[in-house]
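Check this.
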Amino acid sequence: MKNHQTDALRTFEFPILALDYGRARIGLAIATTELRLARPLTTFERINRNEDMRRLRELAREQGVKQIIVGLPKRSDSRSARANKLACPSN
């Protein structure tokens, strides 16, 4: 017997790209809404904002990404790190 509710939910499964945005590198991981567990994908050496965004768009397109999550850097004492301003310029 088919579970139509489960089948309907599967149609909404999509890849999620997670970014760890730093001064020198951007760490990338990929997850799916089904698994809810990210796996390491690659690391980009930072070049400049335009080139970094171009490479991220290209990778997102290749992977079929529908959502991007940006991690906010924290220090070991839970205060925001300086790199937080890179990931979220409005802070």
